[in-house]
Design goal:
InterPro entries: KR_dom, NAD(P)-bd_dom_sf, SDR_fam. GO terms for molecular function: oxidoreductase activity. With about 300 residues, this protein is α/β, with parallel strands linked by helices. The protein has a single domain, classed as Rossmann fold, CATH 3.40.50.720. It is built from nine helices and nine strands. The chain binds NADP nicotinamide-adenine-dinucleotide phosphate. The site of NADP nicotinamide-adenine-dinucleotide phosphate has 29 residues, from helix 1, helix 4 and helix 6.
Length: about 300
Amino acid sequence: MATGPPSYTKVTHSNTYAGIDPTQPGLSTAGKVVLITGASGGIGRATASSFAASGPQALILFGRNADALAETATVARARHAEVTIQTHDADLCDASSVRSALNKVAAEFGGIDIVVHCAGVLPPIAPLLEVDPATFMDGYKTTVVSTLVTAQAVVLANKTTSPNEDKPITFVNLTTAGVLFPPFPGTGAYVGSKMAAVKLLEIFAVENKNVRVHNVHPGIVKTAMLDKLEETIKLPFPPNDSSLPADFIVWVVSPEAEFLKNKIVFSAWDVDELKARKKEIVGDSPGAGELWMGFQGYPRFKNGQPVPGTE
Ligand SMILES: NC(=O)c1ccc[n+]([C@@H]2O[C@H](COP(=O)([O-])OP(=O)(O)OC[C@H]3O[C@@H](n4cnc5c(N)ncnc54)[C@H](OP(=O)(O)O)[C@@H]3O)[C@@H](O)[C@H]2O)c1
Protein backbone atom coordinates (compact mmCIF):
# COMPACT_ATOMS: atom_id res chain seq x y z
CA MET A 1 0.00 0.00 0.00
CA ALA A 2 1.47 3.34 -1.03
CA THR A 3 1.75 6.32 1.34
CA GLY A 4 -0.15 9.29 0.02
CA PRO A 5 -2.93 11.79 0.53
CA PRO A 6 -6.46 10.78 1.63
CA SER A 7 -7.94 8.57 -1.06
CA TYR A 8 -11.24 7.59 -2.67
CA THR A 9 -10.09 3.99 -3.03
CA LYS A 10 -8.78 1.64 -0.33
CA VAL A 11 -5.91 0.57 -2.52
CA THR A 12 -3.67 3.31 -3.92
CA HIS A 13 -0.66 3.11 -6.20
CA SER A 14 2.62 4.95 -6.56
CA ASN A 15 3.81 3.13 -9.67
CA THR A 16 2.15 1.60 -12.72
CA TYR A 17 0.36 -1.77 -12.35
CA ALA A 18 -1.39 -4.41 -14.45
CA GLY A 19 -4.83 -2.70 -14.46
CA ILE A 20 -3.46 0.31 -16.38
CA ASP A 21 -0.89 -1.45 -18.55
CA PRO A 22 -1.23 0.40 -21.88
CA THR A 23 -0.38 -2.71 -23.91
CA GLN A 24 -3.55 -4.55 -22.86
CA PRO A 25 -6.07 -4.89 -25.72
CA GLY A 26 -8.82 -2.92 -23.92
CA LEU A 27 -6.57 0.15 -23.80
CA SER A 28 -5.51 0.01 -27.43
CA THR A 29 -5.60 3.37 -29.22
CA ALA A 30 -5.28 1.80 -32.66
CA GLY A 31 -6.73 4.16 -35.26
CA LYS A 32 -6.72 7.12 -32.84
CA VAL A 33 -4.79 10.34 -33.23
CA VAL A 34 -3.48 11.47 -29.85
CA LEU A 35 -2.36 15.03 -29.14
CA ILE A 36 -0.21 15.68 -26.05
CA THR A 37 0.60 19.23 -24.95
CA GLY A 38 3.49 19.93 -22.59
CA ALA A 39 5.18 16.93 -24.19
CA SER A 40 8.66 18.41 -23.96
CA GLY A 41 9.20 17.13 -20.45
CA GLY A 42 7.80 15.88 -17.19
CA ILE A 43 4.46 14.10 -17.19
CA GLY A 44 3.83 14.95 -20.86
CA ARG A 45 6.95 13.03 -21.94
CA ALA A 46 6.03 10.00 -19.81
CA THR A 47 2.47 10.14 -21.19
CA ALA A 48 3.78 10.16 -24.77
CA SER A 49 5.70 6.99 -24.01
CA SER A 50 2.63 5.29 -22.51
CA PHE A 51 0.44 6.22 -25.49
CA ALA A 52 3.11 4.94 -27.88
CA ALA A 53 2.78 1.57 -26.14
CA SER A 54 -0.99 1.62 -26.76
CA GLY A 55 -0.43 1.68 -30.56
CA PRO A 56 -2.14 4.88 -31.80
CA GLN A 57 -2.47 5.91 -35.43
CA ALA A 58 -0.30 8.95 -34.62
CA LEU A 59 1.12 10.84 -31.67
CA ILE A 60 1.19 14.62 -32.02
CA LEU A 61 3.50 16.28 -29.51
CA PHE A 62 3.30 19.98 -28.62
CA GLY A 63 5.71 22.10 -26.55
CA ARG A 64 7.87 25.18 -27.01
CA ASN A 65 11.26 23.46 -27.04
CA ALA A 66 11.94 21.61 -30.32
CA ASP A 67 15.00 19.71 -29.04
CA ALA A 68 13.16 18.52 -25.95
CA LEU A 69 10.21 17.39 -28.10
CA ALA A 70 12.61 15.42 -30.30
CA GLU A 71 13.95 13.73 -27.17
CA THR A 72 10.37 12.80 -26.15
CA ALA A 73 9.84 11.30 -29.61
CA THR A 74 12.98 9.18 -29.16
CA VAL A 75 11.82 7.98 -25.74
CA ALA A 76 8.37 7.12 -27.12
CA ARG A 77 9.81 5.22 -30.11
CA ALA A 78 11.83 3.11 -27.70
CA ARG A 79 8.45 1.87 -26.42
CA HIS A 80 7.00 1.28 -29.89
CA ALA A 81 9.37 1.65 -32.82
CA GLU A 82 6.61 1.77 -35.47
CA VAL A 83 4.58 4.63 -33.99
CA THR A 84 4.04 7.72 -36.16
CA ILE A 85 5.11 10.84 -34.24
CA GLN A 86 4.92 14.51 -35.18
CA THR A 87 6.37 17.31 -33.08
CA HIS A 88 5.22 20.93 -33.13
CA ASP A 89 6.94 23.71 -31.23
CA ALA A 90 4.36 26.38 -30.48
CA ASP A 91 3.29 28.56 -27.59
CA LEU A 92 -0.18 27.35 -26.64
CA CYS A 93 -1.24 30.91 -25.84
CA ASP A 94 -0.77 31.78 -29.53
CA ALA A 95 -4.16 30.74 -30.91
CA SER A 96 -3.41 31.32 -34.58
CA SER A 97 -0.25 29.17 -34.70
CA VAL A 98 -1.90 26.39 -32.68
CA ARG A 99 -4.95 26.43 -34.97
CA SER A 100 -2.86 26.40 -38.10
CA ALA A 101 -0.72 23.49 -36.82
CA LEU A 102 -3.76 21.44 -35.76
CA ASN A 103 -5.60 22.12 -39.02
CA LYS A 104 -2.62 20.57 -40.82
CA VAL A 105 -2.68 17.60 -38.44
CA ALA A 106 -6.40 17.09 -39.07
CA ALA A 107 -5.89 17.32 -42.84
CA GLU A 108 -3.10 14.73 -42.73
CA PHE A 109 -4.60 12.24 -40.24
CA GLY A 110 -8.36 12.81 -40.57
CA GLY A 111 -8.82 14.54 -37.21
CA ILE A 112 -7.78 14.39 -33.55
CA ASP A 113 -9.44 11.88 -31.21
CA ILE A 114 -7.65 12.25 -27.89
CA VAL A 115 -6.08 15.29 -26.23
CA VAL A 116 -3.93 15.17 -23.11
CA HIS A 117 -3.33 18.70 -21.93
CA CYS A 118 -0.19 18.49 -19.80
CA ALA A 119 1.17 21.99 -20.51
CA GLY A 120 1.25 24.04 -17.37
CA VAL A 121 3.31 26.45 -15.33
CA LEU A 122 3.86 27.01 -11.66
CA PRO A 123 3.48 30.70 -10.84
CA PRO A 124 5.58 31.95 -7.90
CA ILE A 125 4.51 30.42 -4.58
CA ALA A 126 3.89 33.44 -2.34
CA PRO A 127 1.20 34.96 -0.15
CA LEU A 128 -1.41 36.70 -2.28
CA LEU A 129 -0.71 39.99 -0.52
CA GLU A 130 2.81 39.89 -1.89
CA VAL A 131 2.43 38.46 -5.41
CA ASP A 132 3.15 40.69 -8.36
CA PRO A 133 -0.11 40.87 -10.32
CA ALA A 134 1.87 40.87 -13.61
CA THR A 135 3.57 37.54 -12.80
CA PHE A 136 0.31 36.22 -11.44
CA MET A 137 -1.33 36.95 -14.79
CA ASP A 138 1.44 35.16 -16.73
CA GLY A 139 0.68 31.92 -14.90
CA TYR A 140 -3.04 32.47 -15.21
CA LYS A 141 -2.74 33.08 -18.92
CA THR A 142 -0.74 29.93 -19.58
CA THR A 143 -3.07 27.73 -17.58
CA VAL A 144 -6.45 29.17 -18.50
CA VAL A 145 -5.89 30.62 -21.97
CA SER A 146 -3.81 27.66 -23.19
CA THR A 147 -6.61 25.33 -22.11
CA LEU A 148 -9.15 27.35 -24.07
CA VAL A 149 -6.86 27.65 -27.12
CA THR A 150 -6.19 23.89 -27.17
CA ALA A 151 -9.84 22.90 -26.76
CA GLN A 152 -11.02 25.37 -29.41
CA ALA A 153 -8.28 24.47 -31.88
CA VAL A 154 -8.97 20.73 -31.71
CA VAL A 155 -12.73 21.07 -32.23
CA LEU A 156 -12.23 23.57 -35.06
CA ALA A 157 -9.52 21.44 -36.70
CA ASN A 158 -11.83 18.41 -36.73
CA LYS A 159 -14.58 20.52 -38.32
CA THR A 160 -12.25 21.32 -41.23
CA THR A 161 -12.08 17.63 -42.18
CA SER A 162 -15.51 16.46 -40.95
CA PRO A 163 -17.83 19.49 -41.39
CA ASN A 164 -21.00 17.38 -41.13
CA GLU A 165 -19.98 15.32 -38.14
CA ASP A 166 -19.16 16.25 -34.54
CA LYS A 167 -16.22 13.89 -34.23
CA PRO A 168 -15.94 12.54 -30.64
CA ILE A 169 -12.97 13.99 -28.73
CA THR A 170 -11.70 12.84 -25.34
CA PHE A 171 -9.92 15.67 -23.51
CA VAL A 172 -7.82 15.00 -20.41
CA ASN A 173 -6.99 18.04 -18.33
CA LEU A 174 -4.10 17.76 -15.88
CA THR A 175 -5.22 19.47 -12.71
CA THR A 176 -4.17 19.54 -9.08
CA ALA A 177 -5.69 18.09 -5.92
CA GLY A 178 -5.25 21.63 -4.60
CA VAL A 179 -8.62 22.51 -6.15
CA LEU A 180 -10.24 20.08 -3.67
CA PHE A 181 -8.01 20.32 -0.61
CA PRO A 182 -8.35 22.96 2.12
CA PRO A 183 -6.62 26.23 1.10
CA PHE A 184 -2.83 25.98 1.27
CA PRO A 185 -0.98 29.29 1.84
CA GLY A 186 1.16 30.47 -1.07
CA THR A 187 -0.65 28.49 -3.77
CA GLY A 188 -3.33 31.06 -4.66
CA ALA A 189 -2.03 31.85 -8.15
CA TYR A 190 -1.53 28.19 -9.11
CA VAL A 191 -4.66 26.69 -7.58
CA GLY A 192 -6.85 29.65 -8.63
CA SER A 193 -5.80 29.21 -12.25
CA LYS A 194 -6.23 25.42 -12.15
CA MET A 195 -9.72 25.84 -10.71
CA ALA A 196 -10.60 28.27 -13.50
CA ALA A 197 -9.45 25.74 -16.12
CA VAL A 198 -11.63 23.00 -14.61
CA LYS A 199 -14.74 25.20 -14.69
CA LEU A 200 -13.92 26.44 -18.19
CA LEU A 201 -13.78 22.87 -19.49
CA GLU A 202 -16.97 21.93 -17.66
CA ILE A 203 -18.79 24.59 -19.67
CA PHE A 204 -16.91 23.73 -22.87
CA ALA A 205 -18.13 20.12 -22.59
CA VAL A 206 -21.74 21.21 -22.13
CA GLU A 207 -21.50 23.46 -25.19
CA ASN A 208 -19.73 20.78 -27.27
CA LYS A 209 -21.46 17.48 -26.53
CA ASN A 210 -18.91 15.55 -28.60
CA VAL A 211 -16.17 16.50 -26.11
CA ARG A 212 -15.68 14.11 -23.20
CA VAL A 213 -13.63 15.82 -20.47
CA HIS A 214 -11.65 14.14 -17.69
CA ASN A 215 -9.76 16.01 -14.97
CA VAL A 216 -6.80 14.07 -13.58
CA HIS A 217 -4.61 14.93 -10.59
CA PRO A 218 -1.38 13.15 -11.54
CA GLY A 219 -0.07 12.90 -7.96
CA ILE A 220 3.30 14.24 -6.89
CA VAL A 221 5.70 13.52 -9.73
CA LYS A 222 9.39 14.46 -9.96
CA THR A 223 9.49 17.00 -12.81
CA ALA A 224 10.87 20.49 -13.46
CA MET A 225 7.66 21.88 -11.98
CA LEU A 226 8.02 19.84 -8.79
CA ASP A 227 11.66 20.92 -8.43
CA LYS A 228 10.46 24.53 -8.57
CA LEU A 229 7.70 23.88 -6.05
CA GLU A 230 10.10 22.19 -3.64
CA GLU A 231 12.19 25.36 -3.51
CA THR A 232 9.46 26.82 -1.32
CA ILE A 233 7.25 23.97 -0.07
CA LYS A 234 8.17 20.72 1.61
CA LEU A 235 5.65 18.19 0.31
CA PRO A 236 4.15 15.82 2.87
CA PHE A 237 4.16 12.76 0.59
CA PRO A 238 6.83 10.95 -1.42
CA PRO A 239 6.64 11.35 -5.22
CA ASN A 240 4.96 8.82 -7.50
CA ASP A 241 6.70 7.30 -10.48
CA SER A 242 5.78 9.15 -13.69
CA SER A 243 4.60 5.83 -15.17
CA LEU A 244 1.60 6.02 -12.81
CA PRO A 245 -0.13 9.14 -14.22
CA ALA A 246 1.12 8.30 -17.73
CA ASP A 247 -0.44 4.82 -17.84
CA PHE A 248 -3.49 5.94 -15.83
CA ILE A 249 -4.24 8.56 -18.50
CA VAL A 250 -4.21 5.87 -21.21
CA TRP A 251 -6.74 4.01 -19.07
CA VAL A 252 -8.90 7.08 -18.44
CA VAL A 253 -9.43 7.71 -22.18
CA SER A 254 -10.46 4.09 -22.76
CA PRO A 255 -14.11 3.09 -23.26
CA GLU A 256 -14.27 1.45 -19.80
CA ALA A 257 -13.47 4.76 -18.06
CA GLU A 258 -16.05 6.80 -19.96
CA PHE A 259 -18.19 6.92 -16.79
CA LEU A 260 -15.56 9.20 -15.23
CA LYS A 261 -16.23 12.02 -17.68
CA ASN A 262 -16.69 15.43 -16.04
CA LYS A 263 -15.20 14.07 -12.81
CA ILE A 264 -11.92 14.73 -11.01
CA VAL A 265 -9.81 11.64 -10.34
CA PHE A 266 -6.37 10.98 -8.88
CA SER A 267 -4.09 8.68 -10.85
CA ALA A 268 -3.16 6.92 -7.60
CA TRP A 269 -6.70 5.54 -7.22
CA ASP A 270 -7.17 1.90 -8.01
CA VAL A 271 -9.07 1.46 -11.27
CA ASP A 272 -10.77 -1.79 -10.24
CA GLU A 273 -12.29 -0.06 -7.21
CA LEU A 274 -13.34 2.90 -9.36
CA LYS A 275 -15.09 0.56 -11.81
CA ALA A 276 -16.79 -1.26 -8.92
CA ARG A 277 -18.14 2.09 -7.67
CA LYS A 278 -19.38 3.27 -11.07
CA LYS A 279 -23.02 3.62 -9.94
CA GLU A 280 -22.24 5.95 -7.00
CA ILE A 281 -19.76 7.93 -9.08
CA VAL A 282 -22.16 8.58 -11.96
CA GLY A 283 -25.26 9.21 -9.82
CA ASP A 284 -28.82 9.31 -11.10
CA SER A 285 -28.88 12.72 -12.80
CA PRO A 286 -26.47 15.14 -14.50
CA GLY A 287 -24.33 16.95 -11.92
CA ALA A 288 -25.09 14.26 -9.33
CA GLY A 289 -22.92 11.39 -8.17
CA GLU A 290 -19.50 11.54 -6.58
CA LEU A 291 -16.04 12.87 -7.45
CA TRP A 292 -17.28 16.27 -8.36
CA MET A 293 -17.12 19.66 -6.68
CA GLY A 294 -20.45 20.29 -5.02
CA PHE A 295 -21.82 22.83 -2.61
CA GLN A 296 -22.51 21.14 0.70
CA GLY A 297 -25.88 21.83 2.30
CA TYR A 298 -27.44 22.82 -1.04
CA PRO A 299 -30.08 22.30 -2.31
CA ARG A 300 -32.49 21.89 0.60
CA PHE A 301 -35.67 22.88 -1.30
CA LYS A 302 -37.00 22.50 -4.83
CA ASN A 303 -40.23 24.32 -5.75
CA GLY A 304 -40.77 25.02 -2.04
CA GLN A 305 -40.63 21.32 -1.16
CA PRO A 306 -37.79 19.78 0.88
CA VAL A 307 -35.36 17.79 -1.23
CA PRO A 308 -35.61 14.12 -0.14
CA GLY A 309 -33.03 13.35 2.53
CA THR A 310 -32.87 16.93 3.89
CA GLU A 311 -36.03 16.98 6.04
N1 LIG B 1 4.50 17.33 -11.21
C1 LIG B 1 3.55 17.29 -10.30
O1 LIG B 1 3.78 16.82 -9.16
C2 LIG B 1 2.18 17.80 -10.59
C3 LIG B 1 1.21 17.74 -9.57
C4 LIG B 1 -0.08 18.19 -9.84
C5 LIG B 1 -0.40 18.65 -11.10
N2 LIG B 1 0.57 18.72 -12.08
C6 LIG B 1 0.16 19.23 -13.39
O2 LIG B 1 0.59 18.32 -14.40
C7 LIG B 1 0.89 19.02 -15.60
C8 LIG B 1 2.30 18.65 -16.09
O3 LIG B 1 3.20 19.09 -15.10
P1 LIG B 1 4.75 18.70 -15.07
O4 LIG B 1 5.09 18.49 -13.66
O5 LIG B 1 5.03 17.66 -16.07
O6 LIG B 1 5.38 20.09 -15.51
P2 LIG B 1 6.71 20.45 -16.35
O7 LIG B 1 7.70 19.36 -16.26
O8 LIG B 1 7.08 21.81 -15.92
O9 LIG B 1 6.13 20.47 -17.83
C9 LIG B 1 5.24 21.46 -18.23
C10 LIG B 1 5.18 21.48 -19.72
O10 LIG B 1 4.32 22.54 -20.14
C11 LIG B 1 4.89 23.14 -21.28
N3 LIG B 1 4.43 24.52 -21.38
C12 LIG B 1 4.41 25.48 -20.42
N4 LIG B 1 3.93 26.63 -20.90
C13 LIG B 1 3.63 26.41 -22.20
C14 LIG B 1 3.09 27.21 -23.24
N5 LIG B 1 2.77 28.49 -23.05
N6 LIG B 1 2.93 26.66 -24.46
C15 LIG B 1 3.26 25.38 -24.69
N7 LIG B 1 3.75 24.56 -23.74
C16 LIG B 1 3.95 25.07 -22.52
C17 LIG B 1 6.39 23.02 -21.07
O11 LIG B 1 7.02 22.92 -22.30
P3 LIG B 1 8.02 24.02 -22.92
O12 LIG B 1 8.68 24.72 -21.80
O13 LIG B 1 8.88 23.28 -23.87
O14 LIG B 1 7.07 24.88 -23.65
C18 LIG B 1 6.51 21.67 -20.36
O15 LIG B 1 6.70 20.63 -21.30
C19 LIG B 1 0.72 20.50 -15.30
O16 LIG B 1 -0.55 20.92 -15.71
C20 LIG B 1 0.81 20.54 -13.77
O17 LIG B 1 0.11 21.66 -13.23
C21 LIG B 1 1.84 18.31 -11.85
